[in-house]
Design goal:
Elements: E1 2-6, E2 16-20, H1 28-33, E3 36-41, E4 44-53, E5 63-66, H2 68-74, E6 81-86, H3 93-100, H4 107-118, H5 124-136, H6 140-152, E7 165-169, H7 179-189, E8 193-197, H8 207-214, H9 221-231, E9 233-237, H10 245-257, H11 262-275, E10 280-287, H12 296-312, E11 316-323, E12 331-332, H13 334-345, H14 353-367, H15 378-387, H16 390-402, E13 414-419, E14 424-429, H17 431-441, E15 450-453, E16 460-461, E17 466-472, H18 475-487, E18 491-493
Parallel strand pairs: 1-5, 2-4, 7-10, 8-9, 10-11
Antiparallel strand pairs: 1-6, 2-5, 3-4, 3-6, 12-15, 13-17, 14-16, 14-18, 15-17
Helix pairs in contact: 3-5, 4-6, 4-10, 5-10, 6-11, 6-12, 7-14, 7-15, 7-16, 8-13, 9-16, 11-12, 14-15, 17-18
Length: about 500
């Protein structure tokens, strides 16, 4: 028997346990064989990856340390006595091996894999093996089965309305923060739009990261429901309410592997939308040479996959192809994107036209779901709500309801401008490169880090004229970003 001790180490997404190498009744060789252990007592159990400790000031001979994730998931008090034993591999790993061999899996087999992943029975290496196998070959029925399974293992929100609208972009375009304009427009009209968003995965900011500049996004289910009942909408972080938790685990492994195949994307997006209680969805697929989707044929294939899965799950979906050839707006990074959003909502004369136009078009598609609106009138209604200030008023009410951020966040104090190397016209901007430079500067963890784009495609530049300004809150972050930008600024001038 070993006593639980909480170790303040974040090992997300893994459960990690810490045991003294010598002095607790096991030899080092036995410990090294136990790559994953079962920790259990009559009140609960978890599986955890084992780490050996050589310092008795961290762990005593009669203790087992649990990292933050393992301690939270086991839900037992410090000092509780538990047993450990070698963990048996989950039976569903046999299905993963078959998938690696090229087999198509049944719905029950996919469900077993997802259930075990959600219960943290898989190591990152095992999850990675499953993801790589799926990226190589995955059928449409498997994608549907994966989506269903991801919905089933998490929480589901329910709303007292037959029409619950939502909007999602598949991502990959810096500055494309349309949700924070679309949701207030739709809320001002009176449609129910409980928008749960993720934090950035590979981008310099997600909707939750940008909204957090203005208001609290870490809301409980009860808080969300109270806000939606009053304001018709919410802009919250979805991770708090446990929607499709298996997806969060999969994403944590996909990120370092830079996997983003269409089947996993469809399952990830639709599982979270259905779990959030949406009945109608507008889906934005940007298409461009450095976007996630790079050709019209690829976009059509992805659209058909979304439509197939959504139809079988009862989600009415409108899919829009948009221009993904360059960043949207001027700001890239949470503070700079929030600035652009509020400029559009306030109808400021220098607000980014492309961000405003794209957001109004998407809001129009969402308003067309309203049976009371004459077909095709959604766009005009969205434009009216924005121009009249009704959308801004709805956003201000949302910010107050969620809890206004009283800390005024500003762009990073360390700045550097990246200039054009020759005269000419901007003919292309590399979205991937721009995102990478902004992330190296510190975004999204550093809310003030990012890029302020001073020129877009089609604009003329002189030699040495600034293409964009890098912001960071550390000299180190600024230095890394500047070096990367000077190597390749991401702008093509001809």
């Amino acid at each position: 028997m070993l006593k639980i001790r909480r170790i303040p180490i974040d090992t997300y997404p893994e459960n990690t346990a810490f045991v003294l190498r010598n002095g607790s009744g096991y030899s080092a060789e036995q410990f090294q064989a136990l790559r994953k252990i079962r920790i259990f007592c009559q009140d609960g159990e978890i599986l955890a990856t084992l780490a050996l400790v050589d310092d008795e000031s961290i762990i005593g001979p009669d203790e087992i340390g649990l990292g933050e994730q393992a301690f939270a998931r086991l839900c037992l008090a410090e000092g509780t006595e538990v047993c450990i034993e070698q963990a048996r591999p989950p039976a569903s790993l046999d299905f993963v091996r078959r998938k690696i061999g090229g087999d198509a899996l049944s719905e029950s087999e996919v469900s077993a894999i997802v259930r075990d992943i959600a219960c943290h029975l898989y190591s990152p290496m095992e999850i990675g093996a499953y993801l790589v196998a799926c990226a190589g070959f995955m059928t449409t029925p498997e994608t549907l089965a994966l989506t269903r399974a991801m919905i089933d293992v998490g929480n589901r929100l329910h709303w007292d309305s037959p029409l619950v609208v939502d909007k999602h972009c598949i991502g990959g375009i810096p500055g494309n923060r349309t949700s924070m304009i679309v949701v207030p427009i739709v809320a001002a009209h009176g449609l129910l739009c409980p928008k749960t968003s993720s934090r950035a995965i590979t981008s310099p900011s997600g909707t939750a990261d940008t909204m957090e500049v203005l208001a609290n996004v870490d809301l409980s289910e009860e808080q969300m429901k109270a806000i939606v009942a009053k304001e018709h909408a919410v802009l919250a972080w979805g991770g708090r309410v446990d929607l499709s938790p298996a997806d969060d685990v999969l994403i944590s492994v996909e990120r370092p592997l830079r996997l983003d195949d269409h089947e996993q994307m469809v399952a990830s997006i639709l599982s979270k939308k259905i779990a959030a209680g949406s009945t109608h969805l507008v889906l934005d697929i940007p298409v461009g040479p450095t976007a996630k989707v790079r050709s019209q044929s690829e976009a059509v294939r992805l659209r058909k996959l979304f439509e197939y899965v959504a139809r079988h799950l009862g989600l009415e979906t409108v899919i829009v192809f948009s221009d993904g050839s360059q960043p949207v707006g001027r700001g890239v990074g949470p503070v700079l994107e929030a600035r652009d959003v509020m400029a559009v909502l306030r109808n400021e004369p220098d607000a980014p036209d492309d961000l405003r136009d794209h957001a109004v078009a998407l809001a129009g598609h969402m308003l067309d779901f309203d049976p009371a609106i004459e077909g095709g009138r959604g766009y005009a209604r969205a434009l009216e709500l924005l121009a009249s200030g009704a959308a801004l008023a709805a956003m201000e009410r949302l910010i107050e309801a969620q809890g206004r951020n009283e800390q005024k966040l500003t762009p990073g104090v360390y700045k550097a401008e990246i200039g054009a190397r020759k005269a000419g016209r901007v003919v292309a901007i590399d979205c991937e490169r721009i995102s990478r430079i902004a992330r190296i500067a510190g975004a999204p963890m550093d809310k003030g880090a990012g890029l302020d784009l001073l020129h877009k495609v089609g604009e003329a530049v002189r030699p040495g004229e600034a293409l964009y300004r890098i912001h960071a809150n550390s000299e180190t972050g600024l230095g890394f970003a500047r070096d990367l930008a000077e190597e390749n600024a991401g702008y093509e001038i001809a």
